């Protein structure tokens, strides 16, 4: 009991009742415990884990497809029904790009904006401050 009273008096805030320091200590401990026990979804870990799970599912499906194509190599060589019906579309101009020149991937850079050669001057009043008398 004496140890408890010594703790309360050591935590007392001058000008306040003796129990206010102990109350502030308990509130601080409660906040620290809440921070430690906070679910990880608040920090954004849950969303990142779900995104990783989706990526893993995609990778697993690709691995399954590759494993099936390795097991049955004739199925991978057989043309599908779409490729058998495919015909080359007619070209519009009849000219094709040379094989050594690749098509542009990025759009062309626009020219810089045109500014007038001589900027118009603004008429500003002249101030004589302070006036000489």
UniProtKB/TrEMBL annotation:
It comes from the Bacteria. This is DUF2339 domain-containing protein. Residues 105-116 have a biased composition (Pro residues). It comes from Teichococcus globiformis. Residues 121-133 have a biased composition (Basic and acidic residues). Residues 42-69 form a coiled coil. Keywords: Coiled coil. The keyword Coiled coil applies. Residues 76-133 are annotated as: Disordered.
């Amino acid at each position: 009991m004496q140890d408890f009273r010594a703790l309360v008096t050591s935590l007392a805030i001058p000008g306040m009742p003796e129990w206010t320091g102990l109350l502030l200590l308990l509130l601080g401990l409660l906040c620290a415990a809440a921070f430690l026990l906070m679910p990880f979804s608040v920090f954004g870990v849950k969303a990142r884990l779900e995104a990783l799970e989706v990526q893993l599912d995609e990778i697993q499906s690709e691995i399954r497809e590759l494993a099936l194509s390795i097991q049955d190599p004739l199925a991978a060589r057989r043309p599908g029904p779409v490729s058998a019906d495919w015909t080359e579309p007619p070209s519009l101009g009849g000219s094709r790009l040379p094989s050594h020149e690749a098509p542009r991937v990025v759009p062309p850079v626009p020219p810089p904006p045109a500014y007038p050669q001589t900027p118009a001057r603004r008429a500003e009043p002249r101030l004589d401050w302070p006036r000489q008398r």
